[in-house]
Amino acid sequence: MQKKNALLLLVMAMLTTLLFSTRPAKAGLKVFACEPEWGALAEELGGELLDISIATTGRQDPHHIQARPSLLARARRADLLICTGAELEVGWLPLLIRKSGNPKIQQGNAGFFMATDYISLREIPTHLDRSDGDVHASGNPHIQTDPNNILQVATALADRLEKLDPDNADAYRERYRIFADRWHTALKKWNSTASSLSGIPVIVHHKSWSYLVNWLGLNEVATLEPKPGVPPNSGHLAKVLNMVQKNPVRAIIFAEYEDPRSAQWLAKQSGIPLASLPFTVGGSEDASDLFSLFDSTLRRLQEVAK
Amino acid sequence: MKQSILILTLFFSAWPQALLAEQTDLQTLRQEMHEMQSLYEKRIQELEDRYKAQMKALEQRIQAAETTPPPTPDATGSRQAVVAPQQQTAANSFNPAISLILNGRYANFSNDPHEYELPGFTLSGEAGLGKEGLSVEHTELAFSANVDDKFFGKLTAALASHDGSTEVEMEEAYIETLGLGHGLNLRAGRFFSAIGYLNEQHEHAWDFSDAPLIYRGLFGNQLNDDGLQASWLAPTDLYLQVGGELLRGDDFPAAGGAHDGVGAYTLFTRIGGDVGTSHSWQAGISYWSADVEDRTGETHSHGGEESAETPSFTGDSNITAFNFVWKWAPEGNSTQQNLKLQFEYFNRNEDGSIVMDGSSPLETTSYDGDQKGWYAQAVYQFMPQWRAGLRYDHLDVDNNGSDYDILEESGLSDEGHNPERFSIMTDWANSEFSWIRLQYNHDKSYSDSDEQFILQYVHSLGSHGAHQF
């Protein structure tokens, strides 16, 4: 009986500390963004109207995130979930949604927003087998490397924000208009810079740059991973090296969160310059928002492809 | 439309002829039937062609949509409607997610595994070392899906061989609410109890190939039961969950089915959070209580001689548990390197009596049990695909009773020995679906220390859901 009382006391003590440690809630919709690019987009479209928390950083691999207690605590209070979808977060998000006890963010409800639902995905496999590596049945989910996709998602997200928070609908509409104008101007600039990159042969670490490759018209000749999600091995790297010695390649592209050793080895052996690109907002020091993400990406590519 | 008119005309023109042909032979009729058949075939072919053409047009439209520039806002900021993509549907689209875990091993023990005992604990059936040599372990088959918008359901069945026959054990079969609101979750059915940390995780998700000694002693490796679970997640920045379970308690270690089918309950609470981006942690306290009626275990037998007497415990049983888990990954990116530290402590207090079933005259003693145990482990992924781990187990028992001889016979005497075990393991994962593990235990569960080598594979096929923290 004494133990029981001690336990009860402990629980009560914990509860009391919690109640006093909770920070005052910020007004506005609580947004749970799975990846930094969607957090940044929500910031553009909602700004001070939203209370945004981002589950991952630009230096983390969004495939491999733990369903941490802190994420569960945030999912429980979220009004809107903005994630990539297409099974990118399959290793952690379904668990968070299910355990959250939060009806708003359940699949099919207005608080459940998956960016890939609004993009026609590339590389939809015609045949599914795990021997092909970590393939996504719905297609390649890494849509954020093409700025055209960002605008398409922004359009859908602005709609969703108006629906969820009708009191501020005019404000969301105005913010979307400003963002879209700025984005169109930026797109023109990026497209003109990008024309010089069209057709250049590149090697990528993981199949995560398909949308960038498609947008810029790059020629992706090989991946460092022998199969998606399978770490590079010496046999495969030797093959790639053999190939690039015959057909010169202009750049090796990898994300900052990826192990740079394979890319560095290949660069050293072949003399091909390395392009460490920000995979998302916060993926490099100069990619602090969506605009600077693409500025930085293009600048880095141009430097190596000179 | 044209075809159908043609068919109808032909049909009706053929009909009176057939009526008139009462005297004519069967051949005419057959011929007409052939004509109709060929007409139908022609019509089906035309339909198929039309369908193909439509499909092609659709494909072209999709391609066109892909190359169309993104929506341009006009001056008022209004937008073009966003169309959600079309999903493919098939009859099996709503099949539940199926996952299959294949698990097998090679084990080598220096002592006879049949001699295994844990002094101070009455062991249940499954709480041994398992088979020596090559063997297939529990093969798990799990089905899960959202039942509808309000419920989720899951079934996990384990196939295992016992004495030459294959048995199906129902590990989990439960329904759970989805988005009930206010952070509430309700679950009903059979499930792994929320006591402790490791208990809720499936065996295939454990970092070592065997259960901690304290789990083996208290629960016969793992505690699952039939009942209800309710939990509440607090609306705070810090993760806080509190909950409780009402359990049937028919099986080991509760054996309380006599209490109108509610023989045990648990209370649990967990807190957790992050420290910077690289660290995260979780701590939990849980409590389990049962009014035990006639809990039998395996007899404590020296030298393998079978005893006709079975010890049976009746009384109060309470378990208090504490656990703590700390995980580290540089920048929160666990693919290259990560470290997991885990500690659990359990204390079981029991008060009641023990009867030796089958003894004559009936032997009985009062029983005041105090069983404590803990383990600590560290698992480090030092490079992609490779991990190494250390674990230490320790038990401490202080059981008392009016007749100590009967306690000894029941296996509840500590025999002046504190069980402990040192384990070291390394495993390699070709992908997150395939693990191969080598483990070594220096096992001092009883006075004769045992050297154990286990080479194990754990492979998962099919859809594989997210793992808990």
Please describe the structure with a list of short key phrases separated by commas or semicolons.
heterodimer, A: 306 residues, alpha/beta, Rossmann fold, 2 domains, 4-stranded parallel sheet, 44% helix, 11% strand, globular, B: 469 residues, alpha+beta, Porin, 46% strand, elongated
Describe the structure.
The complex is a heterodimer of chains A (306) and B (469). Chain A has 306 residues and is of the alpha/beta class. Helices cover 44% and strands 11% of the residues of chain A. The longest helix of chain A is centred in the middle third of the chain and has 26 residues, at 169-194. A 4-stranded parallel beta sheet of chain A has the order 2-1-3-4, sandwiched between helices. A 4-stranded parallel beta sheet of chain A has the order 6-5-7-8. In chain A, helix 7 (210-216) links the parallel strand 5 (201-204) and strand 6 (219-223). In chain B, strand 9 and strand 10 (279-296) form a beta hairpin. By secondary structure, chain B is an alpha+beta fold. Chain B has helices spanning 2-20, 26-67, 213-219, 404-409, and strands spanning 97-109, 133-136, 139-146, 151-162, 165-177, 184-192, 224-233, 239-247, 264-275, 279-296, 310-328, 338-357, 363-383, 386-397, 400-401, 420-431, 434-444, 450-462. The chains are: A alpha/beta (306), B alpha+beta (469). The interface between A and B is large, with 73 and 76 residues.
Shape of chain B: elongated
Helical proportion of chain B? 10-25%
| Average pLDDT score of chain A | 90
Question: For the largest beta sheet of chain B, what order do the strands appear in spatially?
Answer: 1-3-4-5-6-7-8-9-10-11-12-13-14-16-17-18
Ranges of chain B with pLDDT <50 over ≥5 residues? 10-21, 68-78, 301-305
CATH hierarchy: architecture of the domain at 183-462 in chain B: Beta Barrel
Task: State the helical fraction of chain A.
Answer: 40-55%
The percentage of residues in β strands of chain B lies in over 45%
Named at the architecture level, the CATH assignment of the largest domain in chain A is 3-Layer(aba) Sandwich
Any idea what the CATH superfamily of the domain at 183-462 in chain B is called? Answer: Porin
**Strand count of chain B:** 18
Overall radius of gyration of chain A: 22 Å
Q: Please write the CATH class name of the domain at 183-462 in chain B.
A: Mainly Beta
Instruction: Please describe the biggest sheet of chain A, giving its number of strands, its sense, and whether it closes into a barrel.
Output: 4 strands, parallel
CATH topological fold name of the largest domain in chain A = Rossmann fold
Q: How is the main sheet of chain B built? A: 16 strands, antiparallel, barrel
Gap between N and C termini of chain A, in Å?
77 Å
Q: What's the alpha carbon Rg of chain B, rounded to whole Å?
A: 32 Å
Average pLDDT of chain B, to the nearest integer? 86
Strand fraction of chain A equals 5-15%
SS-based structural class of chain B? alpha+beta
